[in-house]
Each structure stands twice: as structure tokens, then as C-alpha cells.
């Protein structure tokens, strides 16, 4: 069981580091590329939209970093775009995104929980 957990964490790290890099690049590039794209598409770009999108990218980056550091709070931060998408009324895309990230990042934490519970229950009471 421990080998399976290590394999899942390795896969999670393999996905977490590129997610961290991509989201940091998005947070850095969006203040420049976002308004340019909005002008080309003739859509308004408010300061709130700009700051909110950059904050969302930074939340994803923080979540990816926390996942690579084995912190379960990272799961919540990585799922932030799914929550925003669900609040915007795009429930199907939010569900697909949440399911994909949950399948990629949650299993190692669940396996560790099961291992910790079985180890705690097998100890003699003192």
C-alpha cells in the first residue's frame, strides 16, 4: 500500500509542477495579454476582472505548490476555478474540471488517510 501511495504522489508531483509553472506564467502574462485580447475581441476589461483573474491564477499556483509539498489545502485551492465556473452557471464544465483535478490530486491523500487510520487502530491502547 505504501508503494502505491508513493506512486500516486509521484504522479501528483508530475502534474503539480507543470501546473505551478503554467499558472505562474498565466498570472504574470495576463495583465498584458488579457487587455490586448479584450481590445481585439471588442470586449470590456475592468480592473476587477484583471485583478480577479490574476488572483485566481495565483490561487492555482499556491494550490499546486501546496500539493507538491503534501498539504491537503492545495486541493481546495486547485479546485477554485471549478467553483468560479460553477458560480458563473457553467455547471458541466465545472464538474468536469473538478473531477479531473480530484482524480489527479486527491487519491494520494486518501491513501495516506487510510494508512494512518489503519496504523492508529492497530496500536495497542495505553
- Structural category is mainly alpha
- Rg of Cα set: 18 Å
**SSE succession:** HHHHH
Question: pLDDT average, as an integer?
Answer: 90
Major sheet characteristics: none
Distance between the termini: 27 Å
Contiguous uncertain segments of 5+ residues:
none
Can you tell me about this structure?
The chain has helices spanning 2-40, 47-68, 73-78, 80-87, 91-122. The protein is an all-alpha fold. α4 crosses α5. It is elongated, with a radius of gyration of 18 Å. The two termini are 27 Å apart.
Layout of secondary structure:
Elements: H1 2-40, H2 47-68, H3 73-78, H4 80-87, H5 91-122
Helix pairs in contact: 1-2, 1-5, 4-5
Keywords summarizing the entry:
single chain; 126 residues; mainly alpha; elongated
Task: Summarize it.
With 126 residues, the protein is an all-alpha fold.
